[in-house]
Amino acid sequence: MTILQLIAFTAVKILVIFTMMMLTVSYLVYFERKISAWAQNRLGPNRVGWFGLLQPFADVFKLALKEDIVPTNANKTIHTLAPMIALFVAFTTYAVIPFGPDVTMFGITVPLVVADVNIGILYVLALSSLGVYAITLAGWSSGSKYSLLGGIRSSAQMISYEISMGFSVGGVLLFAGSLRPVAIVQAQQGWMWNAVLQPIGFITFLVSAFAETNRLPFDLPEAEPELVGGFHTEYSSMKFAGFFLAEYANMIIASALIVTLYLGGWQFPYIESFGLPAGLVAIIQVLTFLVKIAFLLFFFIWVRWSIPRFRYDQLMNLGWKVMFPLSLINIIWVACLIMIFNL
Amino acid sequence: MNLRRRKKDLTFWERIYIPEIIKGLALTLRTMFKPKFTVEYPEVKFIPPASYRGRPVLVMEENGKERCVACGLCARVCPPLAIEVQAAETQDEKERYPVKFEINMIRCIFCGFCEEVCPEEAIVMSKDYELSFSSREEALYGKDKLLTPIKQVQDRIDFLRHYK
Ligand code: SF4
Ligand code: SF4
């Protein structure tokens, strides 16, 4: 593959992923509203377009037409920068997550991942912890006590959950023996999914992912009843939309990451035994990946409308006294498995 | 010794959360497939029961005349002073009738005192809840808008006779 081809293919992949992300994010908002309505015996948005399917666009127009208010005693530069950091982090993380196997097109083998780097998992962890800067800076620069409290909570929450997240990932890395997301997916052949082999790690990672994306039951940075809107109290118009989009983009990334690390990525168990042509297999595998993500996204929304918010001290207790030891136990468990079965 | 388990003492299974969380998730999942309560308003109208207090209206008898005898009690009792009545004489049996009967619908608070105080069952609360005006003058409902054939308010009158 020449350099030119590499650049062309990468550009196409970035474009496809970016548009897919934007579309998914806007429809995720729609489905969030629909599912919340169904869970409460309501109908949900059904006015704009067929079954309300144009609702996301109406929302975007509404937000774009709103006045952009910056509080007088806000730090204007940082106030503007914060939503940009949030969006930037949310969209760049996706670069290392593989959404399909290598495919051969016109005699060239193209891996279906934007950047197949060998430190992929580290990159994801690093960027997702950068995301907390957006929230903390937003809270701090707004010049409002509610925003500040939201931002501080966010950083405290991030610190306590990132540790158990990192340790849970440790278990996965022991099995795969590599930090490359592609290698991690390939290590989960058949039903050897990490979720099956290390259920404790799966649960701790899932819970940490909820905390990491600030979703209920861990949405303390924006806890509406106590903090008005938390870190985005003082945001309006497109800056608010930036945070909103980033939250949903983070949800997609968290789901994609869980699928990659624990649910076998794009693998469809035992598809080789069906003897299908290679192109069809690749399409089925990409679809499998999308279906797995869709299910996890539904799970995220479903949990939001089922479980009440944790109190702050309960959250800290859970993070340090439960999740942290559990993820350590998981590592020992994985080590034992490797020792005994020589995996 | 009484060792009754208190509500706040959780059992082991309750304390590890996960079974309880699954129970909660199952509940919301079941709810998602239940019939919806939503009434899609502009297309489907909500028809209130007889106990509903909508816009106050004047009862019109079968002969096309109002029941009201212009005693002015409703105007007197109305808390926000929304009613204005001007009486005049008539050759009919009831001897008095309102030449002018006006309710200012911006003022009315739908308390139903007028209906309660009226000695003739001449003013009752209807089921009409769709009120909108684009100017103050429009909100002054005169006799033309208030008079309603008795048939339309019969169930409210029956309700009042039964419960008042
Ligand atoms: S309902 Fe109450 S406020 Fe309205 S006209 Fe009657 S007495 Fe006045
Ligand atoms: S209380 Fe009844 S009868 Fe008297 S003025 Fe009012 S509506 Fe007419």
Show the helix and strand layout.
The complex is a heterodimer of chains A (343) and B (164).
Chain A: H1 3-39, H2 55-65, H3 76-92, E1 103-105, E2 108-110, H4 120-141, H5 145-176, H6 181-186, H7 194-197, H8 199-212, H9 224-227, H10 237-262, H11 278-304, H12 312-341
Helix pairs in contact in A: 1-10, 1-11, 2-10, 3-4, 3-10, 4-5, 5-8, 5-12, 8-10, 8-12, 10-11
Chain B: H1 12-15, H2 18-32, E1 56-60, H3 73-77, E2 83-89, E3 96-104, H4 113-117, E4 123-125, E5 140-141, H5 143-146, E6 147-149, H6 150-163
Parallel strand pairs in B: 1-6
Antiparallel strand pairs in B: 1-4, 2-3, 3-5
The structure holds iron/sulfur cluster (2 copies).
Observed structural traits:
heterodimer, A: 343 residues, mainly alpha, two-stranded antiparallel ribbon, 2% strand, globular, B: 164 residues, alpha+beta, Alpha-Beta Plaits, three-stranded mixed β-sheet, three-stranded antiparallel β-sheet, 29% helix, binds iron/sulfur cluster
Estimate the helix proportion of chain A, in percent: 55-70%
Overall shape of chain B: elongated
Strand order of the largest sheet of chain A: 1-2
Oligomer: heterodimer
Share of residues in strands of chain A:
under 5%
- Low-confidence regions of chain B: none
The CA-CA distance between the termini of chain B, in Å, is 56 Å
The percent range for strand residues of chain B is 15-25%
Taken in chain order, the helices and strands of chain B follow as HHEHEEHEEHEH
